[in-house]
Amino acid sequence: MDELQSLLNGFAIALTLQNVLLMFLGIVLGVLIGVLPGLGGANGIAILLPLTFTMSPTSAIIMLSCIYWGALFGGAITSILFNIPGEPWSVATTFDGHPMARQGRAGEALTAAFTGSFIGAFFAVVMITFLAPLVAEFALRFGPPEYFAVYLLAFCSFVGMGKGSPWKTIAAMMLGFALAAVGMDTVTGQLRLTFGSTELMRGFDFLVAVIGLFGIGEILQTMEEGLEFKGRSAKIDARVVWQTWKQLPRFWATSIRAVLIGCWMGVTPGGATPASFMSYGVARQISKNGHNFGKGEMEGVVAPEVAAHAAGTSALLPMLALGIPGSPTAAVLLGGLLIWGLQPGPLLFVEQPDFVWGLIASMYLGNLVGLFVVLTTVPLFAAILRVPFSIIAPVIIVVCAIGAYTVNNAMLDVWLMMLFGVAGYVFKKLDYPMAPMVLALVLGDRAEDSFRQAMLMSQGSLTILWQNWLVGSITALALVMLAWPFVSPLLARLRGARAAQQA
Amino acid sequence: MDRPEGDGDGVVTVATMEIIVAGLFLAFGGMVMFDSYRIGASWASDGPEAGYFPFYTGLIIVVASLVLLVQGVRQRAASRAAFVEAGQLRQVALVFVPALLYVAGIALAGIYVSSAVYITLFMVFIGHYRWLRSAAVGAGVGVFAFVLFERWFSIPLPKGFVERALGL
Fold this sequence. Notes:
Mean pLDDT of chain B: 87
Number of helices of chain B: 5
Number of helices of chain A: 21
Order of helices and strands of chain A: HHHHHHHHEEHHHHHHHHHHHHH
Strand content of chain A: under 5%
Largest interface: A-B, 59 and 67 residues
Strand order of the largest sheet of chain B: 1-4
Oligomer: heterodimer
Strand content of chain B: 5-15%
Number of domains of chain B: 2
Number of domains of chain A: 1
Helix content of chain B: over 70%
């Protein structure tokens, strides 16, 4: 039980007064970010990243990861009270959460959502505690071909598990890779895709892209809908919480399924959003109250929230153990590690145990703090949503501009942020997925490095991706994922034809 | 997206927008291939050249965008769904154009002053608030940002003539 011993050490690190205060600060900021349109986990953390440069890496990651938990909690508030999902992963929460609020059961819905979130996150953290060290130890044996195969698998999964057009996923992803290549090539020192511009030598910073795509893009889209927030008010007191908690054990089976779906979708880069939809869909099919879903069924709030948080939390497992983030927000945290001078990947567990276990311990504590904070402060955050959009919009644009500038102290980045904002608006409307693009932008250089090293080992032969069972099976799985959206319609047609013959 | 009935006329159809975006991807992919070919996209004696990886990235973009282009052209015949309606576009421009002016203003007047002015004007002209209240919010955000970045975190942001005049 080495893990438990390490975890206890982690608690000792995380439980200093300063770190606990940072946890509270992070959660409050995170809920705020989750509630406000235009600010979400990914770009909110990207904007706040420069503020952590002077902190110790452990304190910094504790605060930033708590912002992430806070944002995950915050999305539920807007979904239930205002029928506006503050975050994409809380869309499924609106289906039953808002009807409950209209029936005057907002307090119950919120309590169920927050508690469900906590349960989902808790099980995901338990999984990280015991699985991440094993994965990291296993990954220590990885060489460049294995790493490239894992990158390949991560990116092919986006194509295989994406809902929209696979071609759009591929185009968006490759755009990310191409943007990552801009600037000086680290191996040969040659300038790539700069077209004579000295400013572009620095390359595109993914933080700027994240702020533009998710921040400015979302503001533009919110504005288009001419949003006026009309919400329900909610009061949560100890009695409502207690009564809701008494009902929750009934949903144990739904919760277990949701945790499993969430952990799976989080570790593979499916992400929290599809996890929440899938969990909601499965719960509706299996539950005996399924016909009531959409009319204000508590189970329909618990299912997506548990899955979204399990996914959002377990997205940190590949980030910690392999250095491959499972979601845009995890990618931003990974960017933070690099800035603080830590090398993400399996060696992190060996070289920086205090950091890793401090972070894992803070996940337990942060979610507990989060549950406490959101249960006690909902009216406050609901009040913030009543501030008119014509005040919030310019303030958020100012915050985004400052955030983009501080990444590199460059004005060009602020202009690029506006450009990415337009791209984000158009991509969102045309269903181009942004998560694979951001991850490609983050991982582009590392994926290319591992590819080059692998090619050097094999003298340019792609057969190195099949040289042993390990790398071969990862590569094969990746290709299956890549082919899936093209093969599955054919299979469906084949099955349809056979059914027609039999009939 | 698929709201055929709205409060105004469609400015551009989804299909046209798909074609435009696919065209931009095509041009971008071509550009990436061209520049990667220029610096060398093949195999040198010491391993892959600098343009090797991006060249194939560009190639995949070109292939994907061609497929999307064809799909867009087909969709154009089938569907007239609007990408954005006139009223919606006006709303978006109402946010986006002032934001562009604001970013241009940063170079002129520094980030704090232009932020304060931007928030104030936005609230007055778009939110129809009183001048006093708008100016109070604008100035408040500007001063708070100044104290937060320059004093607490010692992160210098762009400053303009006002800060210079005040000797900050």
